[in-house]
## 1
Amino acid sequence: MSLRFPFALALLGAVPVIFWLHRLRRRVPERGVPSLVPWLVLRSAEPMRRRRVPPSVLLALHVLSAVLLALAAAGPLRRGDAAPSGDVALILDTTLSMRAGERWPAARAAAAEILASAAGRVTVIELGPRPAVRVARTLDPSAAAAAIEGLVPGAVGADVTGALAQAAAVAGAGARIEVVTDGALAPVVDGKVDGRVDGRVGGRPAAARSSPSTTMPAGANPVRWHVVGHDGARQNVAVVGIAAADDAAGGVRVVARIANLGPAASTARLRLSVGGRVLDETNIDLAPDTTTPAAWSVAARGGVAEVRAVRLGAAGDLAGDALPEDDVADVPLASRTWSVQFAPHGSALRRALEAQPHVRLSAVGLGTLSDDGTVDVTVLGGASAAGLSPGGLPSGGALLVDPHGGPWLVAAADAITGTWQGVALHPITAGLDLADARVSGVRAGSAPAWATVLAVVGGRPAAWAGTIDGQRVVVLGFDPDGGTLAERDAFPRLIGRAIAWAAPDMPPPSLPAGAPFALPPWPVAIAHPDGRRSLAALRFDAALVPGVYTIRRRRVPRAGVVEPGISVAVRAGDPDESGLAALTAGELAAAFAPRPSGPAGDPQAVATAGAAPLQHPASPVQRWVLAAVLCALAVEAAWRAAPARRPTARAAGGR
Amino acid sequence: MSGPTPHAAHDAAHDAAHDAAREALLFDDAFVRRLERLALRVRQVAPAVGSRSGQRRTPAADFVDHRAYSPGDDLRHIDWPALARHDAVFVKLGRVAQAAEVRILLDISPSMAATGDKWRLALELAAALGWLGLSRGDRVVVAPWPRGGAAPWGPASGAARGASLLAWLRAIGPAHTPTSPPPGIADAVRAAVSDAAGGVLLIVSDLWRVDDLDRALTLAPRARWDRVVLQVLDAREIRPVATGAETLVDSETGERLTLQIDEALCDAYVAALRTRLDSVATRCAAAGAAWALLPADWPLEQAVVPYLQHRGMIE
C-alpha cells in the first residue's frame, strides 16, 4: 500500500485541534450544591482530571472524520490498483495545422488549464504521426509544463488512435484522457499518413472519412476533446506535392501540386527557383477545395528546386495565407543511383547491367567483394553464387544469376529449356512482356521456402525472390546467355527492377514533414536543414522541420573520396494537414470512439460530453474540497444540534 | 432564546424545596401524643413554673420529703400521721414544677434549603423539639440563623402554642441571597442565650460554615446550658454520585468549581467529609456538647426521634 499524496497526512494535525476545540467548548453542566466546602479540599488533588476532555460520541466522530479525510486526501493506493481518477493523460496535437492563427497558443493555454485542474499523475503525449510520450505519470506539474513548453507543432499526420491507446496504456485504467487539438487531423494508417485526397481536399479532414487504424480498448478511459481555434482562419494555399523526373531533353521535369484548401477561390503567386535563382514566377487562380498541377522543365540536373505558392490577400499582398509553412516545397533535382558490384557472368547480364541508367557498376572478383556498406546490390552468377551462403552475402541486396547449386535452390537432376511463364504478381515482373520467351539452363527442381516464385519454366521455378536474414535476394535460375529471354526489350528492365527491389530502402526525394522514411541497414549521418546532425539506421522519423535533409553513409572516411549523399526534401504541405477545416469535439469523439462501445466508450455519450466547450468536470481535488466542506458542515451541524448539557438545577441531594 | 440562569434555576429549586418541606410539616395526632410523652433532657431549669419537676422542694401534695413545720406553712401540708407517731409537726414536701429554657437555633442559610430533604428535616426537627418543650411548659424560642429579616419565634410555653410554632415554621423561608461572608453562629448563640440563665440550646444546621462553633459553644456555658448540635446533611452530601464533569455552584457564595466527579473523587470526598465530621464531633465533645449527624432522608418519627432517644438527647 502506498500513498499518492503522503504530505496530506499533515491533516492529522487537526486531531489535537479538535480535542482543543472540544475542551474549549466543553459544556460542563452546572449543579447547585449546598456548599463547596467539602469539595474545595479536592480541587488541588484533581488538577489533571479537571482538564481532561470527556469522551463523547461527537468527539469520536470528529476525530474519525479528520482521520478519514486525511487518509483519503493522501490517496491510499493498494498494489495493483487502477490509476485513480485524478490521473490525467494530456494528448496535445502538434501537427502542422496547429501553427495556423492562434491555435497553438490557445492549445497551450488549454493544456495549462488541464494541468492546473489535474489532481493526480500527469502524462503528456505529443500527438503526431508517431505519438510520443513526453512525460509519463509525473506528479510534478512543472515537469509536465516544461514538456509542453518544449513541443513544437509541425508534423504531418496524426495517429490519434495510437495516441489514445498509448495514453490508456501509460496513464493506466481510470485516467482521464484530455485531447487538445484543432480538430484538423489527418489520420495515420499503418504508420503512414493516409494522404488520400479523393479528388477533394480541405473540405473535411480525412479523420471524418477514415476509420481509425486501431481501436481503443473497450471501456477504458474517458476521453474529452478540446477543440481550439475552431473559428480561426481557414484560407490556405499549400504546395501539397512535388516531384522531379528526368525529361527527354536531358533536363529535369519538376511537377508540383498546388492546393487551395480554403472555402473561397484564391489567387496565388507561384514561383520556381533553383539554388536561390528564380526561374519562373506567375499568378494562378485556384478554385476552392481543389488542387492544381504546375510543371516546369529545368535544364540543370543538380541542386534543389523550390516551389513556392503564396496566397494573395484581397489587396494583392501576401498576407492572406493562414499557414505560411506549407507554401513552399523543395525537391532534389539529382537522380538516385544504386551502387552495384558485379562479378562477371556472361555477356547478356553485363549488357543489361550497363544499360541501367541509375546504376554505378563496379566489376569485382569473387575474392574482392566489398562489404563496407557502400554497395547497394551485389550481382553474382554461376558457381560464384553457388559457393556463397546466405550469411556470406555482402550487406545490401543480392541478384544471383544462374547459380549452379548451393542454398539458393533445390537442384534437379538436369537442366531444362522451356517457355517463361509468370506465376506471381510481383513488383519485379509486373507488367513486363516476357511471355513465350525461351529460357534455357533451368536447374532448380524447387525454390527455397523463403522465396516467392516469380516465373516457371516447364513447371520448374525459373525466377524467385525473397528475404533471407534481412537481405533481399533475387534469383534468376537460368542462363541469360541461352534462350531468347535476354533478347527481349524487357530483360534490362527485369534486371533493373530486380536491382531496385533488392537494393536497401532509400528515402523518397520528397515527403511531408514528420513522415518516417526508410534508411539502409547501415548507419547513416543525417544533416538537418537547421544545421543539426543526427545518426540513424533503417528508419528516420524526426524530419519535422521542412527543408532538405542530406543523408550520407557513415563509414571510415577515405582520403580524397567525397561521399555524395542523398538529399531528401521535406515539405510542410500535405493535402490533409494543410486543410484547416476542423471537426467538432463531438465528431472527433464519435470518429475515435472505442470499439466495441461500452459504458465509457459509447460514441454518442462521448460526443455529447466532448461537444461541450472547454469545461472541466470537478477534478478530484475539487471533489475533495467539496467533500471536506460538506463534512465540516455536517460536523458543525451535529455540533450545534447535539443537545447541550445545560446546567441542571438538580442539587447534590436532589431526587 | 436563553434559558434560565443558574441562579434563577437555583432559586426556583430552593422555593420548591421549601414548599415541599412546609407541606410535610403536619404532625398527626398519634405522633403528637407520642411526642407529648417525651421530653428534652435538660439539666438546668428556669425559676418559672412549669410542668417539669424541679430539684427545689416545696410543700406539696406529692410527697418527697419532710421538714419541720415553720410558722406560716399551709396547714393542709402538715403530715398529721407523723405528728401522731413522733409528736412533732412535719410538713410534707414535694418538687416544684419548673420550666426549662429551650433555645432552638435553626439554620435557614441557603445551604439548608439547597435540598428538599434537608430543609424538611430541619423544619420537622425544629417543630418536634419545640413541641416537646411547649408540651412540658418550657420557654421555647426558635431563632432563625442567619436572622436576616426573620424574627425569632417565642418565647412561648404551653402546648397551646404549638400551632403557632408550626405556623411560624411554615411561614419561614430560607435565605435566598447568597451572603458573603457567611454570618457566624456565635452571634446567633449569644442572642439566643442572652435572656436566660441556662437551659437547653439546640442547634439545627448543616454546619458547613461554622468556623466559630467553638466560640459559640462557649457563649452557652456548659454549667448552665445543655448544648445539642444536630448536623443535618443530605444523603448526596454524605455520599455523592459520580456524574462526570460538573461545575458545582455554592448555594451560599455562588462560587463555582468544575470537577470531574468520578468514583475515585467520590471516595476522596467521603474520606474528606469523614475527617470533617470527626473534627466537628471532637470539637463538640471538647466543649461538652452533644453532637449527632442526621441524614436528611431519615424519617423523623421512625428514625430521627428514636436515634435522639438512643443518644440521650430526648428522654
## 2
Amino acid sequence: MDNFVEGLSEVTCDVLVIGGGTAGPMAALKAKQKNPALNVVLLEKANVKRSGSICMGMDGLNNAVVPGYATPEQYTKEITIANAGIVDQAPVFKYASRCYDIIQELDRFGIRFQKNANGDFDLKKVHHLGTYVLPMPNGDTVKKALYRQIKRERILVSNRFMATRLVTAKDGKIAGAIAVNTRTAEFLVLRAKTVILCMGAAGRLGLPHSGYLFGTYENPTNSGDGYAMAYHAGAALANLECYQINPLIKDYNGPACAYVAGPFGAYTANSEGKRFIESDYWSGQMMQEFYNELQSGKGPVFLKLNHLHADTVGEIEEILHKVERPSRGRFHQARGTDYREKMIEMHISEIGFCSGHSASGVFVDEFARTTVPGLYAAGDMASVPHNYMLGAFTNGAVAGEHAAEVALEIDLPDFDSEFVKAERKRVLAPTRREDGIPPNQLEYKTRRLINDYLQPPKVTARMQIGQARLAEIRDDLETALVAGDAHELMRSLEVSSILDCADMAAHASLFRMESRWGLYHNRVDYPKKDDDNWFCHTLLRKVDGRLVSEKRPIQPYIVPIENEERTAYDRLRVSNQA
Amino acid sequence: MTVCAFPIKPDEEAMPLAFSPTTVPVVVDEAKCIADKGCTVCVEVCPLDVLRISDLTGKAYMKFDECWYCMPCEKDCPTGAVTVNIPYLLR
Amino acid sequence: MTAFDPFEVFGDIEEIGERLNDADAAVRRLAVIDLAETARADVLPHLLTAVADPDATVRLQLAIALSEFDAVEAAAGLARLAADQDLTVAQAAADSLAELKDPAAAESILPLVSHGRAFVRAAGFRGLKALRSRGALGPALAAMRDEDANVRAQALGVVAYLKLEETLPSLIAATLDADATVRSVAVNALSFTSQPAAAAAVTAALDDENWQVRSAAAESLGRIGQTSAVAGLTAGLSDAYWQVRQKCLNALGKLKAQSAVRQISALLTSDMASLRKESAAALGEIADPSSRDTLMAHIGDADPDVRKTVRWALTRLG
C-alpha cells in the first residue's frame, strides 16, 4: 500500500456526489430514491463508514425546528438577526420547513434522539428566543445508520478517492470530476450529468494553538478541497470573510457546553466564576465577547460545572465523553482535571470556513444550486448560514432530489480530454521530483502564516504581508513540493486546497471594508458596521485566473423583519452596568 | 516507545531527509490484533488513513503521525486491540 | 495504463459463508463482520448459523452484526443470543434488539419476557418498547410488579410509549415503586395526559425522598398543565436542592401561577444566578403587572443572563 500505481479508469453516472460525510450520503440516498433507475455514485476521500465531521456521531441537533416548539418563520427570523441581516432567507426557510421530516426519517433509520418516557422528542430550550435543541445521548449511531441505508439502496460507493478538480463542458455546465486514489495514486475520471459537492468545512486552515497540525476543531480531512474545487470551476463563494471560530476546551478540540451542558445548568464563566456572555446564540458576536474576556483582566475563560450535583455532572460526562469526541474523557483524565472539582480552561479555535457554524460557503440558492449549471453544494461548505448537522442532512436531501430531476432531462455533457491530461500532470508533479519540500513542512508554514497574518482582529497591512508571504509558498508548492508515496500525495493536494482557501480568506477579508459578525470579521482599521455600503453579500470567484470579489444584494426577505425586531436582539444583549 | 516510521526513500539519489522520532498516539496490542487473520477494520475506518498492517509482523500499526484522536479504530476493533492516546503536544 | 474497478465490492457471499466453518474462531469472526457489511437480507441464513458457534467471541460479533438487519429473522437470532450464557454476548444482543424497528419483530421478542432470568426479561421489554406493540401491553402491565427493578423499569417503558389512558392506574402505581429510577420514569411518563388523577400522583412525587424524582415531577407538572399542582410546586420552591427549585419555578411559569408570584419573586434574590434567571423567566411567563417593580429592581443584576431575562420579562409585562 501507498506505492505509486499507474492506472486510469473512467466511469459515467447521472449524479455524482463528492463527500460521504453527512450531506453526501443523504444527497445520494435522495437522488436514488427519487429515481431508482439513476446511476448514483458516492465518492469519498476516506471511508463512508467513518468519514466526515460526525465520524463518531453527534451529541445533538442545535437547530431542530419541530412543530409545537418553533416555526419556520420564527427560525428564519432568528437566523437572519443572528447573522447580522446578511441572509438570503429562501434557503433558510426551506431548511426550516423541511427539517422536521428529515428528523423523522433519521429516526426511522435508527439514529437515536432524546425522547421522553412516552417516546416523544424531548427538545431543550437553550437560548431566550426559541426551543431548537434536540439532544442525541446515543448519537454514536449516526454514521452506522447512514451507511446501512447507502448499502441497502445499492449506491455505488468509491472510498479512498480524493477529488482534485471539477470538469466543466464548453457551455459552462458541469461535466464531472477527476479523482486520485489516496493509496495508489491511480486516476479516476468521473463523467456526470450533475455533481453535488458535500466536502465539509475548510477546517484545516488555521493552526491550532497546540501546534499539532491535526488537532483541529473540524475533522482534518475537511481541508477545504470543496471550496478550492468550486473556486477553480468558476463557482461563486459567499461571505468567506465571515470565518468560523469556535469556543473550545483549551488544547482539546471539543466544544464547550452551550448545547450539551447548558440545559443541565453549566455555563461559560470568567476567572471569577461569573457569566459574561451577553449574546444568546453561537455567533460572531458571542465569539467577540469570548475573545474580549480572554484578553481582559478577568480572563481566561472557563467551562463551569462544579456547582452542579455530582450525578448531573456524571450525566453530562456520559454525553461529552462518549459521543462526538470520545477522547475527551481521556484528555481530562491525563490532565487530572475533573468537572466536579474545578472549572475547565477554555480557548478559541483556529480559523476556518464553515457555513454550518457561520456563513462562509459556496454560494447556493434554495435548491442547493451553485452558480455553475448542474453543480450543487450542501452541508458545511454551502452558504446556508448556521445550518449545522441537520442542515447538512436537509440541504443534502434538497440537492439530491433536484439533481436527480435535472439528470433525467439532460444528456451527458462533453468532456475535454486535454483537461484531464493537464490535471494528471498537475496532480502528479510532486511525485516526479527527486528533491524538494515535503507536504508536512509546507503545510505547517502555510498554516502558521495564516495564524500570524489572517486571523482576527484583522488589520489591512498585516493581511497584505500575509498575501505576499503566501505567494512565496505557492511558488514552493508549484516548483518544489515532493510526495514520496500516494499518502503524501494526498497531503500535498490538501496543502494546495489549504493555500487556495488562505488566499480566498485574505482576499474576501480585505474586500469588505467594515466590521461585521463580531469577531469573525473584526477589522480593526474599519471598526464600525457600515450598513449603507456593506449591507450585502460578498461573492468571490475566479475570473481569468484571478480572485475577484463583488457585492451581491440581499434578496428581499420573505419573512419580514420589523425594525423593532431587528433591534430586539441587540436590546436583549445590551449590557447594563452591574 | 512507539515510534512513527518515517518514509525514507531507499534509493541512493533520495533527497536528504531527517529522521525525527515521534511518539505516536495510536497503540496496537499485538497479542490481541487479528490483522494476520485478514482483519483490516482499523485501517479501513480511519478518516486520516494513518494505520497500516505491517509486512513484518502482520499486525496493525500507526504509520503516519496525523491523528485526530477521533477513535473509530479503537471503537470498531473487534478484539479491543487498539488504544488511542491523546497526542503528546496536546496532553 | 491499467483500468480498475473503483467501487466497493463485498465479496462472494458463499465464499464468506464457508469461512464460518473455519477451525479458527478469529476467521469465523471476520466472516461475520464481512457478511454483515453487505447489509443484504440474503446473507441472514448464513449469519444465523453462527448463533450456535461454540466460541463466545463469534457469537458476540454476531449479536453486534445483527443490528444491521431490521428483519424478523434477525430478531429471532437476537432473541436467542439475549439469553446467551455469556453475559457480554447477551448484553450486545439486548442492545441490538433495542435497535429493531419492524413491528413484526415483536413476535420473536415476546417469549423473552417470561424468561427465568431477569436480564432476559428486561432485554425483551427494552426491545419491545420502540415497536409500540399492543400485544406487549398485557405482559408489560403484569411485569410492572416484577421482583426485579430493571424489568419493572423496562416494562413501564413499554406501557408509557403506548400512551393509553386505560393504563393510568398502573402508571400512577409506579410513582410509588420501591426503585427511584422506576418512580422517575413513571412521573415523566404521566406527562402525556392532563387527567387530574395523574396530576395528583405527580404532585405527591414532589415529596419523594429522591431529588431526581422530585425534579422529574416538577418538570412533568409543567407539561400536564393542571393548576391543582400550583400549591405543591410553590412548596417545592423551598426544596433542599436548587435543581428542584429551578424546575418548580419553570413549571409555575408554564402554569401561569399568579398566586405564586410572591414566592417566585423571593428567588430573585437567590445567591444562584440560575435561580434568579428562572425566577425572572417565570415572572415573565405569568406576566402579572404587579411584578414590574420587583423586576425593575433587578435590571442591573450582576449576571448577564439574569439581566437579559429580566429585560425579556419586562417586555412581556407590556
## 3
Amino acid sequence: MSLASVLLREDALREHEDGLALSVRLPWYRSLPLSCVEEIEVALDGEPIPAENLRLVVGGRERRLDELQARHDEEWFVRDPASILVPRPVRAGEAHDVRVAIRCRIPYISTAPDTPLRQVTERALELTVQPAAPPSSPTIPDPLDGAGSSPE
Amino acid sequence: MSPGASALPRLGVTLYSFTRDFHAGRATLEELVARVAREGLGPGLEVIGFQSFRGFPHMAAEDERRFLELVERHGLELSCLDGNVDIALRADRLLDETELVEYLQAQIDAAARLGFPVLRIQNQASPRVVERLLPHAEKRRVKLGMEIHAPETVRSPWVLALRELYARLDSPYLGFIPDFGASTRGISPSMFEAFRAKGVSDDLLEEIARRWRELDGKEFEAHEEIGRFIALAHEHGAGDHAVNLAVFAVGIHGHQEASAWSEILPHVVHVHGKFFDIRDGREPVVALEELIDVLVAGGYRGYISSEYEGWHWDTESDAFAMVARQQAVCRAALERYARSS
C-alpha cells in the first residue's frame, strides 16, 4: 500500500567497508528536507541496531541520525536512493532478515492543531547480501536525464 | 473538439497521477511529459514542485531551461505549479508567519520564472499569510490557488475566512482550487477491493462505508474523525492497514455536494479533477458530469487537471490509461454541454 514497497528492495543489502549498507528510498511522493526524517529503525535477524550506531548517506554525505533534524535546508530528493550504514559485517551471498522503519514528519499536513502528520513506513524482508557497490553513482540521475538510467 | 469548445474548460493532467512510475524510476520527468503529449492527455500540464524538480524552488537554471524546452517541444501548456506550505519544516518549531511568507515567495518566484499562471497553496497558509503574499503574487503575476481538498468544503470555517478576505481584497490573484475528491458519493469500490485482497474483513469495510455515510452533511474536524476511523479499524484487527484505511476513507473522500462549488466559482483559478477509478465508462464515486456542469454553468473556463489517486491502492493499473479513460468521460460531458448550450 502506498509507497512502502519501494522503501526496501530485494537487492537493498550490500557489503560495505564499515559493515553493511542498506539502500532505501524516501517513502513519500515528494522530496522532504532531512529535518523531516525523524527516526530510522533497523533490525538485523531480529536484533534492533542502536540508532546511535546508524549512519544515513544522502547525496553522498554521511550523517549520524541526530544530525538530520537541524538540516531543514537540505533535501532528500524523492528520486535519490539513500544508504543506511550499519556496523555489522556481512558477506555477499548470505541471507539476513532485515526490518527497516522510517518515521517522517509531513510538514504541510496536520493531524491536530499545530501537530504535523507523522508517517511511519516499515518493511521487513529476507535479503541476500550483494557485493559492495562501487563508490560512484550514489544517486540515480536527474529526472531530466534520459531513459536507461532507472534502477529497475 | 466541437465548435464552441474554446469557450469551455480545457483538460489537462497533473504529473502526480503518475507518481508510482516516477517514484519507482520507471519513467523520468522527460518521459512522463512526452507520454502525456503523445497520448493526448493535455494540453494542461501541472506539476508538484517538490516532486518534479531537484532543489525546488531554487532549481538549477539549466534544469529550468530544459524543462521549458521540453514543454514547448511537446506543445503543452503550463496550468498550475503545486507549491507546499511546509509549516513544520523545522524539527524544533513551526515556521512563524514571516518565515512562511518568505518560504512561499520563493515558490511564487519559481512559478513566475517557469511561466505557471497559478501556484497551488494549502490551508497551512493562514488568511494573514495569504494577505501578505498577495503583493508578491501580483508583482510576479502568479495567481494563488488555495486548494480545497476532502474532507474540507467551501463552508469549512477556514475557507469562509478566506472567502471574506478575498471579498475584501478583491484581487484576481487570489483564488481557490477545488479538488473533485471533496465531492464524492461514497468510498471508491476499488479501494475496498484492494483492502479486501489484503485480508481486511468485510465486516470492517462495511462498517467504514456505513460510518462514512453517517458523516454526510455533518461538520467535523478531519483529524478527530480520522482518529475515530483508526480506532474502529484497530478494533476490527486491521493492524498495519488501520491508518491508511482511515486516511483514505476520510481524507480523500469528501461529502460536499457538487453544486456547492458554485458559491466560490468566481474565485476558482484551477481545478483538480480527482478520481480513483474508471469502470464501465464512469467514475463510480466522483460525479464527473455533474461537477463539470456546475463548473461550466458558473462560467469556469480554466483547466480541469486530471488527478488519478487510485495508485495508492491499485498497484497494477496503468495510470496513463486511467487518465485517458477519465478524460474521455470529461470530454463527452463538455461536448454534450457545448451542443446543448
## 4
Amino acid sequence: MAAVKPLTLRRVVGVSLLLGAVLLVVAAVAVGLGPVSISARAVGGCLLQAATGNTQHMSNDCRLIVLDLRLPRVLLALLVGAALSVAGAGFQALLRNPLADPYVLGVSSGAALGAILAMIVAPNAPLASMGAAFVGALVTVAAVYFLGRRGGQLDSYTLLLAGVISASFFSAVIMFLMTSLPGRDLRGITFWLMGDLSAPLPVRLGWLMLATWLTIGAIYTTSADLNLLSAGEREATHLGVNTGRVKLIVYLGGSLLTALAVSVSGAIGYIGLLVPHVMRMLFGSDYRLLIPASALGGAIALIVADSLARTVIAPTELPVGAMTAIVGAPVFIYLLRRKLG
Amino acid sequence: MSVKGYPLPAEGTAWADEPPRLLVEEASFAYQPAGKRTSQFTLEPVSFRAQRGELVTIVGPNASGKTTLLQLLSGLNRPLGGRVELDGEELCRLDPRTRAQRIAVVQQESPLVFPVSTTEFVLQGRHPYSRRLHFPSEGDLGLALRALEQVGAAHLAGRWLNELSGGEKQRVVLARALAQQPMLLLLDEPTLHLDIGGQVELLKQLTALATTGKTTIVVVTHELELAAQFADQVVLLHHGRTLGVGRPAEVFEEAVLREVFEAPLRVEPGPGNRPSIRLEVRPK
C-alpha cells in the first residue's frame, strides 16, 4: 500500500468540485429522460434561459416538461439523496457501526409513523407532519441506541437487530393506520412505505433545500470530532472532544435530515448505507471529506435510481425505494459478512 | 531472564524541592450499578505525588482498582472524595480541550471502526490544539512525524493501522499520545500485547521520555519485574486499598507480594537498590 497523505483543504475542495460536476451532468441527463426525450444540451439551454429570466423565447417543452415537471423531481431526488447519505454517515460515527443507516436502523419508519399520526390528527398541517416525523426519528434513534446495548457497550449485531425489528413493527402499524384511513389506496401506501418521489410536496422546495443544507452544514462543523468519536467515546474525550455536544448535534441533525427526507418521499432505503461506504472506499474515511462527498454522492445516486425507476418499465413507474433496495440489500449482506463475520 | 534497570535519581536532586506536578490527595471513587444501593467497587482514599520526569507504576492483582485510579488521574472520572491536581489545578475543573493538551492517555486496545493511516492517527494527537474545521498544518505534520521517530516507528508513516502487528500498533498509539505534547502521560497496561523484548524496549522509551522530556508518566502494569527495574515510584493496590507507595525497594516486600498476588514470589535485593522479583515454583 502506498503512503497515505493526510487530508488537506485543497483535496476536499477538489473532490467536491469533481463530484459537483458529475452531479450537474447526471441531473441534466435525468431531466432529459422520459416519454418525451430531451437532450442534455437542450436542458442546459432551457435552464440557462430560466436562470437569466429570458422567458419569451422559451419552448413549451422547456417550460412545461423541464421546468414544471422534471426539474422539481430531480431537485427533490438531489435533496433527499444528500440528506439520507449525510444522516447515514453521521449515524455510522455516532453508533460506531459501519452498517448504520436511517432505513436499516428503523429511523425512517419511525419518522414515517410520526408523519402519518400527525396526518390523521391534523390532516391539513404539513408542518405538523414534518415536526412529528422529526419526533418519530428522535424517539427511534434513542430506542434503538438503548436496545442495542449489551453490558453497557454498543453491540453491532444487537443494534442492527433492534433496528430491523423496529422498522418492521413501525411498518405494520403504518399499514394498519393507513388501511383504516378513508380515501387512501393500498398501492399508494406501498409506494410510500418503499419510498417514492412522485407524491406532491407538502412544503415549497426552497424551504426544504434551505433546511437540508443548513442541517448538513451543522453536522459538518463536527466532522473533525467525528473522526475521533468513531474510534470510541472515551478515546475521543481523552483527545479533547466535547463528546456530549458532538453526539447531540449529530443525533439531532441526523434525525432531522431523515425526517425531512421521509416526510417528502417516504422510507427510501440503503442510500445512507451505500453512499458513505462507496465514498470511504474512494476517498478515505476522514469525515471532513466524507460528509461533502456523501452529500454529493447521495444526490447523484438517488437521481440515477429515480431515473431508472421512472424509465425501466415505462410507462409504469416503480417506487424509487425498490430500485435502491434491489442494489442495496445484497451489498448490505456482503458488508455484514465482511465486517462482522 | 534479568532486566537491567535504570539508576534511581539520588535523594535530594533538583526536582525534589519543586512543588509536585501531580498531586493525588485522599482521592476515592466508587462504582454504583444502576438501581442498587450498595456500590460494586470502592477505591479507598489514595495519596501520592509525582514530580516532573518521574515514572510511576501502579501495580496490583486483577480488580484491585488500578484502572479506576488511572481514570481519576485522566480526569475522566471525578473523585468522590479528595482531589487530583496537575500543576496546582484540579483536573475536574479543566475543560476537555485544555485537559487533552496536558494529559495524554494510552488505553488498552480499542477496535477501529474505519481504516485509518498511521500518519492520520498520530495527527489526531494534535486535535486538542486545532480550531474547528482546521486542517493539519505543516507544523502539525512535522510534530506527528517526529513523534513517530521518537518511538522508533518512522518507517511506519503512511501505512494502514489495521495492517500493523501488535507491537508496531502499540508504538503508533504511543506516538499519538506524544503528539499531544502532554505534561502527564498515562498508560493502561501498555505491555499487554508485547513480548518480553518489546516490553523492555517500551519501558526504556518511557524512561527516556520522562527524563529528557520532563514528562510525568504513570503506567498501570501487571509486570512486577518491569516495575521494579524501571519505576521511580510504585503504588501497590489490593481490593481498592493502597498497600504501599514509594520506591520499588520499599514497596516490594516479599511477604506482602506473596499475600497480595497469592503466588510464590521471591524478592531479592538487586543492583542500584532495585529489587529483583522471581517466581519460585519448587519441583514436585
